[in-house]
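Hi,

Apologies if this is the wrong queue. I'm a grad student, and the batch job for Relaxase/Mobilisation nuclease domain-containing protein from Xylanibacter ruminicola produced an output file that my downstream script rejects. I'm not sure whether the problem is my script or the file. Here is the sequence I used:
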Amino acid sequence: MIATILKSSSTFSAVRYNERKVEHGVAELVAIRNFGYLQDAPEMRGITSLRNYLMDYSARNDRTRMTQFHAAISCKGDEYSKEELIKIADQYLNKMGYNNDGQPVLMYFHHDTGNNHLHIVTSRISPDGKKISDSMENIRSLKAIESIMSIDQKHQNSEMMKLAKSYHFESVSQFMAIFETSGYEAYIQDKNIYIKRGGQVQDKIAVKEIEKLCRKNGEDEKKRIRQLRAILKKYRDQSTSREELESMLKKKFGISIKFLGNEFSPYGYMVVDNATKSVFKGSDILGIKDLLQFQSREEKLQKVDFFIEDKLRENPLATTFDLNHDLHRFYGCYIKHGNIIMGKDKEELASYLVDKIKYNDKVAWVQGFSPVNEQQVRLLSKMFNVSSEHLHVEENGNNIHSTINTINEQLELSKDSSSSESIFDRLNDEGIWTYRFEDKFFCVNPSKREIVDLEASGIDMSKFKASRSADIETSEHKHSTGQGKTRPISNDIGSSDRINYNPDANRNSYGEVDDERAMIRRS
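Support response: The file is valid. Your script probably expects a header line. Output copied below for reference.
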């Protein structure tokens, strides 16, 4: 375990460094403490807001220029987990004098190297405005880590031995595998099992004592073996390498694999199933050759294409959400922005599939208006250029009170206003589109996906019907003055970058519904 104090700064450049790592997907913010309003408002956090908060906090001491304290605590490989490193970091801050009530602290866990490590960012100024001592801090840092590890290691070793003894295992080697998959080394010498970590022997136990704890597999274990066989096969087919398989099993199920023999051509393996606290002989689950029979990325991606085609044949209106549910389950991938995303790899989806899925997403989005009768189905079909056969009536419909309230508010305001602005302009400014369709007036609120039959909803129709004899603008004028003010509709499900269901993209004007101009304004 190593603690490194990194370069100081007056502008908290460490925040930018760590947040950039988060953006690139190789780090995560695991602790934020004493950050005022930012504490419970993750949507407001960013490089600028976090840096500004730390600089404002540090300004209580105007004599110290380099106010940033930035340290990294790292271990060998995955010897210590994220949670363990956070606990160690807390103890480290305490010993270094940065544990005062009100001290702002950020912790970032990084996984961009082969060694787990955690970065700490805080201020060198304490809440009372005094500078926290940096005298001989590198020496104090070294002693702090040595002290923490000495105390922590003894306790951890004791707990690990208790835990290992509580597992079900059939042999001494399976018992040793529990340690070997938890960051320890284990070996037998002089009839004892020695447990080693960090280059030092941490514990030992007599082989005979462990032999007494060995038990044959019973019915529960045999049932679990069948479950593990299915799990290993499924995630083998989602992986392209041994490392990827091991990582996936550990992350999803707490399953660790101990391979036996040569690193590049193992002759066997053991499975440490931490969920059921059991260790199994690998060959009882799946032969080593079968386990390591990985498919190439190309083979897997080709299968994904065929899988999507099959799913669309089964359900011609399957959406991105529907497909991703099954893709994640069977192949460990998903589709986004017209691409298949598999781990860090990205492959373009066939264009005809992209178009089909985008259309299905649009249908699902339009259905979200919950039309209550066939007339509303026909209107939505024409507005958004989807087949009416792909939409259906929903008897209950949406709660449309929000849009009705907005319409009534604008009607009241138009009575009191001396402005010549029409009710249609007012509603359009609120993001509500007005249409005359099949001799009825409708208001459509895309942002809330609400459609209102004005007359049926008891709306005062006088200001709407007065426009029947008004000149109707051309679609060009209408779109330049009205449509541009409406918000684009974002795709909540996600195959396209944005679903901006602008009818002009599909026809000259979706305002022309049933051969009538839909958005009517007084000239």
